[in-house]
Amino acid sequence: MIKGIGIDIIELSRIKESIQNNTKFVDRILTEKEKAFFMKLKSEKRKIEFLAGRFASKEAFAKATGTGIGKLSFKDIEILHDDQGAPTITVNGYTNYRIFISISHSNEFAVAQVILED
């Protein structure tokens, strides 16, 4: 049974500005495993897309739960990828749920949708 659906969209320019204006922004959003992957990315554009996708995904998850970010931390939510490159999501306190996630990018935006099912 579906318990929640969340979607979020973010401008890549907003993420780029946040990285430039706040040296701790990446550390605040990404878990250690996410950050390790982020640091291996070669281009600034790809790093911005990656971070924007993770930001949108975590916001979308929080919306699916109905709590929003605040009760959950960005670091409670981890988005990695499977062997085929599809995103996977793990959330502290939500191991009894099935969580579906989709992330997409354009030249200007990143968008993510999350479905929470028990």
Give an overview in words.
This protein is an alpha+beta fold. 39% of the residues lie in helices and 31% in strands. It is built from 4 helices and 5 strands, in the order βααααββββ. It is globular, with a radius of gyration of 14 Å.
Concise account of the structure shown:
It is built from 4 helices and 5 strands.
Shape: globular
Number of helices: 4
- Strand-pairing-aware structural class: alpha+beta
User: How much helix is in the residues?
Assistant: 25-40%
Q: Give the SSE order as H and E letters.
A: EHHHHEEEE
Overall mean pLDDT stands at 95
- Major β-sheet strand ordering: 1-5-4
Number of beta strands:
5
Intertermini distance: 6 Å
| Spans where pLDDT lies below 50 across 5 or more residues | none
- Integer-rounded radius of gyration: 14 Å
Characterize the biggest β-sheet: 3 strands, antiparallel
Beta-strand residue fraction: 25-35%
